[in-house]
């Protein structure tokens, strides 16, 4: 059995040897072979068309609940028969309760890890060809049948001769020709549909298909997945709550992946999770914090966190598996996302609109002033009366309304981020229906900004704390309070970092703003202003800072001190 690879040679797409998504080469290849595209199109239309007709007849007949379930099962069976690309689309829909009816959602969820396996003899032959030995020679034990079957491969449980329990993931045969033909048709359909949609909705439709294609090609390269797993593990090396399986490179290739067997329970198996004595709220916190670290700290995030890829371990850790679909964010994107969360919480819609422009949701030449009232109306409703009412599903529902009336668009990369966030929130809600993601998310974002670990993050903090040339004490108080709500924030080290920044050349502007804020309403007398002005005019040593600050404050009465320092900060 030959390796199922694809290569671009002199602009032509040829089944053969490499893994790189090239839509132009793929289009050229299938355009020269129209019978392949026509045949596949007829199969897809026949199967989905029959389903649509039956679905419309059901609505006309007003069927029973049992018939609804049959129709949902029928859709799952059709997607399974259509193959890997259709299954991947179904998996994406299975995480969107805002788009899919509950009965269909339950069936689509089965596409995550309840798919029919392919023949064992073929799988074992792939292992033999890829690793150079028969499975019985490589492993001390290996299951006679797969323990799980997914869209792109199936998994066997095995034991190495050295005694380690491992999972052996074997890719489905003839995968690339099926995937590339479907991607060609999806891209063609996107180009045909785009002009029929509002400009902002159709603008990135083919780009979204291309992003999907790039990630799909990365996902079917198990060498790439193994590298991703090790990078992910290195990022979380300091986090005792996150587990990443060890990769066994000696028994890994492009089509076979051998990794540590994870002993645990799916997060959606709430009965087993609770029977093991695990705290569901703690698992939720681990999941949300690890997701936020991926997006805002490392920029390297798991883009497919469906229930089949996350496990609760008996010792309370959360295990991530399946690192085929990952993505990397730039530093600027990470910082802008962090700032946008704070702007949203503070209901600063002007700054938020500018964040959308920086992130690509609005073009650079878009006038944001006319959009602000709409943002305030829609996102204000989504936020509710308090921060605790916030959830991503509501935000995406409300935000989708803006797409039709204003020039918003979803950048291709953000389709993965949104999917990841909504999926994680859905998982958390399955463990705790009363869960509020902001109760975990905002303290983390506040801590990231307050610590100001990079010059860019410190600039973002200043943007939040200084508005219209005035220092916003109430925002600082609010951030300090929220940052400490989950008990993971120590004020003293953060205050030390802030003090170092205040003394540095970079902190010159902040010193000016704090001085201006302190002199408002005659909080300080003239001589005190003069002493503190030294902080602004000169570069100073730590000892000099202490002397100036002490001389400025030692003669103040307790009433004067209370007027100078905001209560929330004074209490700390």
User: Tell me about the biggest sheet?
Assistant: 5 strands, antiparallel
**C-alpha-based Rg, rounded:** 28 Å
Structural class by sheet pairing and helices: alpha+beta
Strand fraction band?
Answer: 5-15%
Annotation field: number of helices? 27
Would you report the number of β strands?
15
Helix content: 55-70%
From the N-terminal CA to the C-terminal CA, the straight-line distance is 69 Å
- Give the averaged pLDDT, no decimals: 75
Overall morphology: globular
- Low-pLDDT parts are 1-13, 535-540, 555-572
Query: What's the oligomerization state?
Result: single chain
What do these coordinates show?
This protein is α+β, with helices and mostly antiparallel strands and 572 residues long. It is 58% helix and 9% strand. The chain has 27 helices and 15 strands. Strands 3, 4, 5, 6 and 8 form a five-stranded antiparallel beta sheet that branches. Strands 7-12-11-9 form a four-stranded mixed beta sheet. Helix 16 (372-383) packs antiparallel against helix 17 (392-405). The termini are far apart. Residues 1-13, 535-540 and 555-572 have low confidence and may be disordered.
